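Lab notebook, design round three. We kept the backbone fixed and only want residue identities now. Task for the bench partner: fill in a sequence for the structure below.
Input structure tokens:
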């Protein structure tokens, strides 16, 4: 029996992705929900680490009964509390979690989207569903222990002719002005994908829309420079194989013409962007699978607010997809990302890892 157990452990270890650092599986498809996807990682004002994901009841893609779930850590990601279900609207599809924390109040805001559960993204984009995707919001005032009943933001948070809609996915940011900003995207009747932002200037009480950004732009994340410029970093939908960037000089209300960023290759996949300041430095971290396929999740570091990305390190050379980054209360970096095991059916796992910034730099 001992030899058989040892053999099974070795076999399992051989099938695991060769991540550079130890990881913790927080959401494993087939345990709890048939499939998990779409990570979002946030740290509260109290230092609690919150890991959000979609829990897909039927185990399929962007269709069917999908709930939003959460796991919390009160010790900087060393250990995790049991899974919580925080939003479930019957058999509809809830997706694209994009949380943000209000530093002034401590409130955790979670914008997300709701689609008719029996219709695919393709059908919604084509106008073949009975209703479009709508945008919703829940919030917590007790550090993620409990969450409000979701409310529909669609009256001010989307335009009537938009069809598909996505918040993030990933995280929102709070600007120096106090504005809460949620990077988002949508499709128009022409079936064109465009990015936009959703923002609040009254601590989440009401929400407004920014202008749209360019063409063939979709899932996005944002960061603010010291001079107040907001940079929107977007996934392309037209085989650009490069990230698309746009800038705003008015807090994300209007945007410059988009440009392709040759320093940030992508295979058409969501990416994570995290910015923070120290007394002497501004640090931006970026993570995505950088090739033509979704493999080799790579972390990049910029010390000039995203103008150059001279430092890159592969975190996991295996099959990897979406990711989210957070700065933990102990000063380290947290990473929540999707991986798949080699030689097995597609059953994503969402793993968490933590590391000092010096690891990215190879020190």
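Proposed sequence:
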């Amino acid at each position: 029996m001992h030899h058989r157990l040892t053999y099974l452990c070795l076999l399992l270890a051989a099938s695991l992705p060769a991540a550079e650092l130890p990881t913790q599986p927080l959401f494993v498809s087939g345990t709890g929900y048939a499939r998990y996807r779409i990570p979002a990682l946030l740290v509260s004002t109290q230092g609690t680490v919150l890991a959000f994901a979609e829990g897909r009841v039927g185990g399929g893609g962007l269709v069917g009964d999908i709930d939003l779930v959460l796991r919390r850590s009160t010790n900087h990601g060393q250990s995790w509390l049991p899974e919580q279900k925080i939003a479930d609207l019957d058999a509809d599809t809830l997706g694209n979690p994009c949380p943000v924390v209000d530093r002034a109040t401590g409130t955790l805001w979670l914008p997300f989207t709701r689609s008719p559960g029996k219709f695919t993204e393709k059908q919604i984009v084509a106008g073949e569903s009975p209703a479009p995707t709508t945008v919703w919001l829940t919030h917590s005032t007790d550090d993620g222990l409990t969450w409000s009943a979701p409310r529909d933001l669609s009256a001010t948070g989307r335009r009537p002719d938009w069809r598909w809609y996505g918040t993030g996915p990933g995280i929102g940011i709070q600007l120096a002005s106090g504005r809460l900003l949620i990077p988002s995207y949508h499709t128009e009747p022409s079936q064109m994908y465009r990015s936009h932002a959703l923002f609040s200037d009254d601590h989440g009480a009401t929400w407004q829309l920014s202008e749209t950004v360019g063409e063939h732009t979709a899932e996005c994340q944002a960061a603010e420079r010291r001079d107040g410029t907001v940079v929107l970093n977007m996934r392309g939908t037209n085989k650009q194989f490069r990230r698309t960037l746009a800038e705003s000089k008015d807090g994300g209300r209007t945007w410059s013409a988009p440009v392709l960023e040759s320093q940030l290759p992508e295979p058409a996949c969501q990416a994570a962007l995290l910015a923070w300041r120290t007394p002497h430095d501004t640090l931006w971290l970026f993570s995505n699978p950088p090739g033509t396929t979704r493999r080799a999740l790579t972390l990049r570091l910029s010390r000039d607010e995203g103008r150059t990305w001279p430092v890159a390190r592969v975190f996991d050379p295996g099959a990897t997809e979406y990711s989210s980054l957070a700065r933990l209360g102990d000063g380290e970096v947290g990473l929540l990302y999707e991986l798949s095991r080699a030689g097995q059916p597609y059953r994503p796992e969402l793993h968490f890892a933590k590391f000092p910034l010096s690891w990215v730099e190879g020190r």
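Keep this in mind before ordering anything: Residues 1-17 have pLDDT under 50 and may be disordered.
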